[in-house]
Amino acid sequence: MKTVKIDIALIIVALTALAYGTAYIYEYSFQAYYQLPTVFIDLNINTITSSLFYLILAVTGILIISSFFTTLIMKLKGPFFVNIPLGVLIYFSLLVIAAAVLMGYGFAKHKEEYLILRQKEELFVVIKSYKDNLVIAPLDIEKETIKPKFQTIEMKDAKDTEVINFENGIRVDKLKSSKELKKEIK
């Protein structure tokens, strides 16, 4: 297997790009479960850390081990990260991206604890926070489903809230079609 000499600065840039890309993909797939538009993806240190902590830890360990064995097997000289074969780097990058997709959608699908708030006589589920706001959706408590009809409210306005456990998670109702919307407007 051919190895490529890579400067440590390029590795740092590549890992940073991979971290941001993976965090975006994780957030995208998490929100895809709720049918939430991508406009609510907010990459910051909290979202990157929370979505990638265990993933980065595992990948770093795997890269160190693979580099160590590559050095032993191929009897290469130099620091561990300099001797990682390019194919291994590409493989692990694709593995990280695939894991982000599966983890994002899976965490959303299997999430059981939700913050519920009451506004007037209606119940809403907090899907996620976005900047200083909460993204909420109407809850049908009987069916344990939400409608993909989202609103944002300021965090300070969320007064009557409670954390509720849904044993089987919350399902999301099907999106309306344009025909259904046209019928509603008429």
Order of helices and strands: HHHEEEEEEEH
**How far apart are the termini?**
66 Å
User: Number of helix segments?
Assistant: 4
Mean pLDDT: 81
Strand element count: 7
Could you walk me through the main structural features you see in this protein, from its secondary elements to its overall organization?
- The chain is of the alpha+beta class and 186 residues long.
- Strands 1, 2, 3, 4, 5, 6 and 7 form a 7-stranded mixed sheet that branches.
- Helix 1 packs across helix 2.
- It is elongated and about 70 Å long.
- 17% of the residues are buried.
How is this structure best summarized?
With 186 residues, the protein is an alpha+beta fold. Helices cover 48% and strands 20% of the residues.
How is the topology of this model organized?
Layout: H1 8-34, H2 45-74, H3 86-110, E1 113-119, E2 122-130, E3 133-140, E4 145-146, E5 151-154, E6 161-165, E7 171-172, H4 178-185
Parallel strand pairs: 4-7
Antiparallel strand pairs: 1-2, 1-6, 2-3, 3-4, 3-5
Helix pairs in contact: 1-2, 1-3, 2-3
Keywords:
alpha+beta; 4 helices; elongated; 186 residues
